Every structure is written in C-alpha cells, then in structure tokens.
Amino acid sequence: MRFWHFTEQSYHPGWDKTTDPLRIVPPSSMMDREVVADLFHRYLDEYRLADELGFDIMVNEHHASMTCMSSVPAIPMAVLARETKKARLLCLGVPMANRMDPLRVAEELAMIDMISRGRLEFGFVKGSGWELYISNSNPARMMERFWEAHDLILKAWATRDGPFSWEGKHFHYRTVNVIPGIWQHPHPPMWMPGSSAMSAKIVAQKGYTLASFLCGHQAKATFAGYRKVYEETWGRECPLDRLAYLGMAVTADNQAEAEKRAHALYAYWSTVPRSPAGTFNPAGYAPVEANAQAYLSGPAKQMSMGLLPDGKPLPAKPTLDELAEAGLLFWGKPDQVVHQIQRFADQVGGLGHFLMMGQGGYLDHKDTADSLKLLAKEVYPAFKDSAPSPEPIAAE
Amino acid sequence: MLESLPLERIDVASVGAERVKMGSGRPLLYLHDGGGIEFGAAFIERLSQNYEVHALSHPGFGGSDLPSHYDSVDDLAFFYLDYIEQEGLEDVVLVGAQFGGWIAAEIATMGSDRISQVVLIDAYGIKVGSRDKQDVADIFYLLPEVIAEMGWHSPRPGTKAPTIEGARRIARNRESHSLYGWSPLLHNPKLVHRLHRITAPTLVLWGESDRLAPVDYGRAYAERIPAARFELIKEAGALPHVEQTEATARAIETFVAPVTA
C-alpha cells in the first residue's frame, strides 16, 4: 500500500471569525496576507517533509473557500515538482467540466510531468456542486463536457506527430499541440473519484485508479463494484493499486497527545457542511431521477458521514473511537493506527493506496510534522512492503 | 394544475413535444415561465375563453423531448417559429411569461409575418445594468423560500410534488431552465441590441412587486421596443398570470381587441 500525504491547505484561522458559509461568500477582507503567505509556505514545507519521509503527495482544488486555498493546484504541483525528489505527485483533481480551456490544463500538467521527470499522477473529478457558482459553468450537461475534456486532454498528450484540430460540441481549437509533450507518454497514471458501485463502473471500464473519499465502509460496496466491472472488462484480477481510500490520519507517541491531535484534525469535518445552503446540488448537477426522488422525499435531514462496518450510518456526533471504527479518522499511538488501517483495508476487501489527510482542521505545523515522522517510521513500514508494485502501473 | 390541461403529443420539426390546444378564435401562442406549462394552467384556460390558445412545454421541460444540440434560447425561438409555420398559424398573438417572455422577445426580433402582437410578462432576456451587478436575481443560487419571497406579491406555501411523475417534471423543468439560463444569467447579451427590430405592437406587463426582475428592468425592456406599451399589474410579483390571472388576461384582451376589430 502506498501512503499519500494530503492537506486541503485551509485558512482555518478564519473559521471561527464568521458564522457565514466558508465557501463562495466569505469576504476576502477576512484574509490576513501575512497569515496566508505563512500558511502556504507551511503546507509546502509539510509536503516537502512528506517527500523526505517517503510518502507520495496529493493536492486538490477548491474555489473561493476558506477550507481550501488551493484554487489553482498546478501552482503547488509546480513548486513540488522541483522541490521534491521522489514523491509521486497526484493532482486529484481538476474539475474538468468547470474548465473553459482544457488544453491549458493539458499544458500545465505536461510541464509538471516534465519538470518532475515523470512523477505526475492525474485525476479527473466532477467536483462539488458549489464550485459551479465560481466557475460559472452550467450544471446541465456537465458530464458531457467532462468527457469531452477528458478525451481532448488524453489525445493532446498522446499525439506526437504534430497538431490536430478539435471541433467538438463544447470545445474548439484550431491547433492542439502540447509542446513540451508529456514525460509519461501516452499519459500519466489516471485517477477518478467514486462513491458508489454505480459511479465506480466507468472508472473500472477505463482502468483508472478509483478513489473513495471519507465515506467509511461505503467503500466496501464501491470497491466491490469496481473489481467486478474491472474483471469483466479486462479479463483479469483487479490489481490492488487501482483502489484508493481517503481518510484522516494522525498519531503521537502517547495516548493523550494522540487524542489531542485527533480532535484538532477532526475539526476539518465541521467545515464540510459550511457551503451556502442552496449550492450543494444546482439544477442539473444530479440526474433528473435522483432529483425527482429527492423532491418526493424532501431534503435530507443531515449529511451522510459514512458507514460503520456493520453498514449502519455513523451517529451525528461520533466519538473518536467510532470515527476510527468507521475508517474516517485513523488515530492513536502508531500500533493502534497500524491496526485500524489494516482492519479497514481488510474489511473493504483490500486497498492499494491510502490518501492520508495528514494535516487538516487545527492541527498545527509542529504536531503535523511530528505525526508525519512517526507515521513514516512506525506505521508506513507495516504496509509499504505489501505495496503491489514499486512503480505505478499506468492506466490500460 | 397539470391535470386540468388536455395535453397531447405532437412533433415539431422532428422534436417530440407536449401541447395544449384549447378554445377558438385568434391564435394565441403562450410561452410558459420557468416553472413549466403547469404554472400557467389557469391562465391558459382563462385565455381559451376568447382565443385559440396554443401552449407547448418547451423542449426539455415537462414531457417535451430535449434534443442533444439544444442549449440556448434561440434554439427555442426557432422551435416555435417551426411550430407556427407547421400549424399554418396567422395573425398570432405571442404571449410569453418570465423565461417564456425571453423566448417571445427573441422570436419577435427574428421577425415573422405571422405574428401580429406580442405580450411580454415579467420577461427575462436583456442586460441593461452595470457589468458588475446582476440585473435579475440569481434564481439558480437563491433558496426556494427566498425566490418565493422575492417572486410573489403574496407569498404562498410551496407545494410538494405528489407523484414521482410530477417530481420528474419539476426536475426536468429546473434542469432545462438552468441549461438555457445559467450563463449569461437569464439573458442574451445581444438581445437588447436587437429589440429595435420588433415592429409588432407590444405590451410589456409587469408585476408591481416583482423583485426577481424588478419593475425598472421591465421599463427598460419596454423603452427599447419601438411600439411598446408598459403596464403594471397590481398585487402581483414575478408571475402576474398566476397571481392575478384575471387582471392579466383582461390587460391582454384590452390590448389585443382594437387590432382584432
């Protein structure tokens, strides 16, 4: 199993300064430029530390959000392409349906792949509903745009015999020619998130790595769906490195400190619902049938926090132990964290990648760095040897 | 509301659509608001007392098909021009409400000898204000209760879809409204520059309490149409044809009558 360090690069100093949503509408006057700059450097330092400790690295993207300042993930990716030495650099990912200019995305990532000498890994994501209020892209037909952008980017990377033209339904280019080209030809390893067996299907058909985010034991059904379709499509057993799970993880050398850090990290979760109320599902974002069912049943009472191993939903205010049991937050002394991750991986049927939110919430730099070092020294070795392949396999 | 409408399936230039055709007299083509044809059911019935009312669900709304290449209001305008020609309608009164008013304005700028008079009710479609401010409220962002508060003169309780079929219609209506109106937000930047082409006598009706598309926006609309008259409907918000069905129908009849005579 490979471990990837991930942080949302939040502006947590602002979280308790407003009762308003933290996304789309918080006034930028709340941002202190000294604090912002310090935080950006701090998060980059932690990514660099993760590289030195032998972890891989994941970066994400949100907009107009105090929960995630990484609005242009190509920028931290570009910094890290030069500052890190060994880590794989996963951008998970770019909300493709929100991009007016997919060729620009292909060019940015190609440069990152070249500068890092082939360490780029790339994820196409649908993105959250509220992002559409910033990108201004239409929620209707967004998956149609998503797939056209996907096809264009892959063709742009794969093509080595000069320009081609693209006159699609949504995107138009008279000349597509990615100079400098991409190091990992025809394309870097590809990723896509999925939260159900249904959404995992297309990922399996493409042979991309499926990432399930913070959903607890819902991942079991999602992965089972993936493996089934993968085996049907490719006629062989699904390699473990196609299955990834994102959870929070923190450790310390004693229980009291670990508990303190777990609380600090878990504070991330309190930000999840803090978007303007109407923006989770703009019309067209979810399919007609799903929206119709929702109109009939009325709005959901609370957001799902993931499932416990027995398939029951987590209680609204779970304990730290319940969060560990659910596979949302792995925490404790190193041996406890090893046990929790191993147990979760076994329960969901095997895991090739652990996307580790090693920083989040109010977890400060000192505790983050100490936790990462301990994770590298006393947790990762228990899994690293079982890594399915030293070099990642490109998508089929 | 929907139950009272005798819907039938027809093809318009190979697009499957649902239609209501009611009453007799001069043809009146009604273009529904973003809530769908069902919002205007009582209005359609009232108009059918004096006109042959033609009302279709716009492609993508209600039970009408959505061709994969449709994504803008001019697709809808051409669809309705096809319909008018296919049905051989002459001397048409074209009435559009809110989103349907935008379609009506587009059709009117395209020009058709078959259309004699135009009625725009709280119509979307133009951009006249400053570029760093929205002219009309962002109905794709605001919560339903806020839209209701801004849109009705007398706020009314929301109704829940009673059946899955009804819920599907709502979901399709909302998705298609977004498809056509998400960005630029409920307008075509070029339309305002084309309004001078509307030569048919035009009545611009506006609910005095509309805060989604405010009264000044309506006046600006009317000012740019050469032969337009502007009238307020009292005690009505964004949907006067729903809230003040009788007064709205009478205003239309008064406007239309002299030409008919």
Automatic annotation (TrEMBL), chain A:
Domain Luciferase-like as annotated: residue spans: 40-346
GO molecular function, one term: oxidoreductase activity, acting on paired donors, with incorporation or reduction of molecular oxygen
Keyword line: Monooxygenase, Oxidoreductase
GO cellular component, one term: cytosol
SUPFAM superfamilies: Bacterial luciferase-like
Protein name: LLM class flavin-dependent oxidoreductase
Native organism: Sphingomonas montanisoli
